[in-house]
Every structure is written in C-alpha cells, then in structure tokens.
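Students often ask what a holo structure prediction actually looks like on paper. The answer is less mysterious than it sounds. You provide the chain, you provide the ligand, and the output is a string of discrete structure tokens encoding the 3D arrangement of the protein together with NAI.
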Amino acid sequence: MQTGTSTIGVVGAGAMGSGIAQLAAQAGHTVVLVDQNESALERSAAALAKVAERLVEKGKWSAADSERIQSAIDRAMAIEKLAACDWVIEAIVEDLGLKQSLFQSLETIVAPDVVLATNTSSLSVTTIAGKLQQPERFMGLHFFNPAPLMALVEVVPALQTNAAHVDRAKAMMDAWGKSPVVTKDTPGFIVNRVARPFYGEALRIFEEGLATRETIDAAMRDAGFRMGPFELMDLIGNDVNYAVSCTIFEAFYNDPRYRPSLIQKQHVDAGWLGRKSGKGYYTYGEGQTPQTANNASIDTKQFNWIVERIVAMLINEAADACYLNIASPADLETAMTRGVNYPKGLLAWCNEWGARATLNILESLQIRYGDDRYRPSPVLRDLAAQKTSFSL
Ligand code: NAI
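The corresponding structure tokens follow.
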C-alpha cells in the first residue's frame, strides 16, 4: 500500500466517484467525497464496506488496511468541505452545464494552486475549461469502470492546461498503481475513439447478413479478444454504447467512419439494452445460457475475413490517431491493451500484417462500398510506400 500525503477531493459518489475515492484512500491519501445526494453517500460507504469485507476474506487486505482505507474517506454533501484539498476530481453526471457550474463554484472554494480534474468520458475538457478563471489548472482524468480494477487512466490536458500539471497527474497515477496515458482532448480520447470499429464494423457485417452475431463473436474471440462485439455491447449496455457512438459521430462533424448503426438504435428503442434488461443481441433469461456460449462452428475462411475486416478498421483508427498526434505510439498501445484488454496493440498488429496488407483490406472495402468510411489513414500509405513499419 502506498502513502500519498495530499488530500484528494472527489465530487460525485456514484460508480466512478466511489471507485476513485477508494483508489485514493488505498494509495494513502485522505479523501473528501462529496455528493449532493445523501443516499448516494450512504450507498457508496456500504459498497466500500462490502468490498473491504470480501478483500479481507480473500487475504488481499489486512483488517488494518480495511479500517485505514474506510476511515480515510470523509463524506459530505457540501462542496465547501473540499476547501483544504490539494486535488479535486469530479465524477458527477455527464452534463456539460452541470460540470461547468460545479467547477466555477469549486474555483471560489479551493486554493489557486489546486488542480481540478474531470472524469468525463465524452465531453470536451477544453470546453469545460473555457468557463474557468484559471483554465491552466484544469484537465481530464478519465478512469475506467470499475476504477479500482482497471489499470488505464487517460490523462487529458485541455488546450489551456499547464504542462507541469500533466506531469504531476501522471506521477500521481503511477503512484496509485495505474497505467496513465496522455491523450489530446479529441472526441472519445483514445479508447472510445479507437475502439469504435469493434462495434461499428461488426454491426455492419451483421446488418448485411454476411455473418450471424454468434459467428462474428466467435471469430473475434478466436482472434484473441476476450469477448465478441455483440456480447460486449450487451455487457456495456446498448443504450450506453449507442450514446457514445452518437456523441463521437456528431463531435466529428458526421464523419462516416463513426456513423452509428440503425440496429443499435432499434435495440435501444425496443428496450433490448443487453444483460441489464435480460435481452439484447442475446437473451439472458434466468437459468438460460446465452446463445453466444454455443460457439459457432469454426469456418476458418469466414473467421479470417471477419477478423481482417474488423481489425483492419481498428488498425486504421489507431494509425490515424498516431498520425494526428492524439497520443504517442506507446500510449496508444497501452491504452488498447490495458484499457480494453485487446490481445495486442493495434500498431504492433499492423506491423505483423504489414502496412501494405492492411492497406489492401481497407482499399478493397473502399472500392466495394464506395464509402469514405473505409478511407485509409495517410500514415498507412506512407509506411506501405516506404516498406517500413511503426517504430514501437
Ligand atoms: P452516477 O450516476 O453513478 O453518479 C453520479 C453521482 O453524482 C450521483 O451520485 C449524483 O448524486 C452526483 N451528483 C450529480 N450532480 C452533482 C453535483 N452537482 N454535486 C455533487 N454531486 C452530484 O455516474 P457515474 O457512472 O459514476 O459517472 C460519473 C462520471 O464519470 C460521468 O461523467 C461519466 O461519464 C464518467 N464515466 C463513467 C464511466 C462508467 O462506466 N460509468 C466510465 C468512465 C467515466
């Protein structure tokens, strides 16, 4: 267990805020967790007590750890309680106006050298910073759910952020045992942007009737992914996944590469949200085995083209993110392997296939569909022409 000396403020005691507060307490910090809703604070404390009990039973925490971590978190409803904090991390609802007004209030409460961070997953960090008196001390710290378990944290400087704060944030995330990656403030940051084709291309193949959901899932699992696209969408929630797809599509001014699928919308409209509603792409009735478990019979030829098509689109996104300096090649690889557990980094995958072979897949899709969705990243053309690969 680490020993952080500073006091961390967390606003929002929902799933994310509670996890972040736990992490900070585990790292040795004193934590002030604020929520305007008292019952959210009570639920958060009860959930942590349950986690602590389980971890003590499993021998992962000592009884003293459990006591120390739980008592390190002070809970309150008034944001004034954050006055003595050294950092404040916000995890309230995903609403631009609410987040901006919260940070405007926080600026009047905390000291001028306190760093303020948002855990937003889809809003522009720069837009939130735009309303602040001291935007240079503001940034995104994007944790993944569940925060105590997921290694990745995307550190997102706004256009206005002072670079020294980015270094401090990275050092703090390292001290918390996380794998921080730095990403530009663009829609979806790294993971939610680069992963879009995992769902989008699978939906397109399914929509065209070229393969069943079961076959697509089985093919992707066979390629090393822990879950296929349809079972994963059911786990995430089709409403959540569709909302992220729409946000990113709109934020990129309707770039066809990110166009959501009508199938997603219909599933949401029908209330087929996935595991949480008992039905999504698969059925999860009590005692019922989802069809996904009955592995589709292996047809190597079919598996190969499904994987080629989806992975080529994923590589294209990662290559473009690299080309546009959204993140360093190393951080792009870390983000996809540690944030969403891809079997390997997408740039390494490209090197394995060769830029020319990846380009061939994308170009043949572009010719077949006549669609800008499949336009290859310029960096793939450069690498293919120079017969080189990504340096990793
Ligand atoms: P949640 O709905 O579970 O919790 C939000 C909490 O904020 C609630 O307890 C609510 O009472 C409180 N709250 C709302 N407005 C407040 C205010 N003005 N002052 C104090 N408390 C306030 O939400 P969740 O899922 O924890 O998400 C929080 C943030 O984290 C969102 O921005 C979300 O986009 C982001 N995020 C969520 C992930 C997820 O998988 N749930 C993953 C990564 C980021």
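The mean pLDDT is 94.
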